[in-house]
## 1
Amino acid sequence: MTARLLVPLPGAEAFAERLAHAGGFELGALETRRFPDGERYLRLLCDPAGRLVDIVGELSRPDDRFLTLAFAADTLREHGAREVGLVAPYLGYLRQDARFQPGEAITSRTFARLLSGLVDRLVTVDPHLHRIATLDEVYAVPSVTLHAAPLIGDWIAREVDSPLVIGPDLESEQWASQVAMRAGAPYAVLEKQRFGDRDVRVATPGLSRFAGRQPVLIDDIASSGRTLIAASEALQAQGFSPPVCVVVHAIFGEDALARVSQAAARVVSTDTIEHATNAISVAPLIAEVLGQGADSQAS
Ligand code: R5P
């Protein structure tokens, strides 16, 4: 039996190593650099001939990463890979899933079509599905969607005394309830309204029955950080102490982490995106599903 071959995109080497270690997979490598004109050079430093291969790389800030992924996928096939999958712990371009103003691009749809043309299958963690029910609605290749809620629930149970799990908006209820059940804690959801990229307002329902508990704000994405900040302010206005903030995907653009840190007791994330706040690894979760599709052909 030949182990799957994992090929990390630039920046994903540490995550791919954790994944390889968790699942007993083989780690390949790419050499990449920029030509003086800014274009990308890419070379395989492993032999994918006849192998099941997974390119590993999260797709936040995807505009540049997408081309690198395209070059890697084509090159792997040209060198005989039997199947080229993608492990993207964070999958970008899911939030603009509708045309809110005339003339807007529905980027989630275009990105899904382009990505489906590159890889044979996809594994990801907590994709931001809002108006889209499943990835199958936009992706033409088979996909596996994994959920970090049990890992987050276990982390909260270990690390936080007397927690109160808080989802920042009504859409997060299902997720907050799963995390809370796993952590053995109560939960509540707030009411969020977004008026712009950095203009978020949050209203809190009456939470006095939870007085004295440590709020744990959970969200799938922290990008501008405004959701966490507004939720933290609303909770503190009700007399709660600064929340522990737990996010799946730590995008944290610009000064977002500094701002959120001022409003929070602690900020942690899963390692779907490599970030200073990473405290919970999704590598074992992904390794488990990749292992189920192990290459059983004799080498
Ligand atoms: C929204 O529906 C998501 O669940 C997050 O709350 C949102 O993406 C966070 O973005 P930001 O950090 O920019 O407020």
## 2
Amino acid sequence: MAVYIHDERERAGMRAAGRVAAATLAHVGARLRSGVSTADIDRWVREDTARREARPSQLGYKGFPAAVCTSRNHVVCHGIPRATERLAPGDIINVDVTSEHAGFHGDTSATFLIGPVDAERRALVEATRRCLAAGVAEVRAGARLGDIGAAVEALARAEGFGVVRDYGGHGIGRAMHMPPHVPHTGRRGRGLRLRAGMAITIEPMLTIGWPALSLLDDGWTVVTADGSPSAQFEHTVLVTESGREVLTAQPVALELNCP
Ligand code: MF3
Ligand code: CO
Ligand code: CO
């Protein structure tokens, strides 16, 4: 399983793609409020991506029918936007934007809170955000994939939440999904050794209780088996000689609390 090493030129391409995906996520995030439909989100992603001379990577990917994944409440990931699905107070919703710009892909997501959200869901979202940060902090040349998984898993466990094992992060570059698979659980010192020039995503999904999942009949939507909520955050990260570059970092922190 060869993992692609990006040279200096390709790293510049990846930075540009990461900035596009991050900007579109911020654009959409600033417009979320109760009453918005997930189809509105899909339209905003298409419009904003086009303005940035990019293409939504997810549209048509293995037949995925939309430009963005919108995963609300008990939807863990890969939710399909729908005109009939409207945000309501108390919802949490993950918006996952992947953009292809000049041949490179950037992939990033965040979970937003709509109106007043109950304390358990707020804690879930906050823990997930911190799990992503803990995973990112492990990235450097010479570190192992197991270091990332172990850091995410330890924090999730300490906060009392479950970590999804069936889906994980991935390599990214001239394709949205490339080797390696990046687990959000694991053991320190195990797994692939990271090298400068590798680009991966880290995208932990946390659940309340044990994360048993089911797949809906549409073939895409992944939900918790018991209907309990789930949250996710994602960044695209470049491994560098001295540490890491978060290619989808937000220049101004996203406002996760929406009206
Ligand atoms: N952006 C998703 C990820 O983080 C990809 C979802 S594949 C799709 O890997 F086809 F559902 F869009
Ligand atoms: Co991803
Ligand atoms: Co994504």
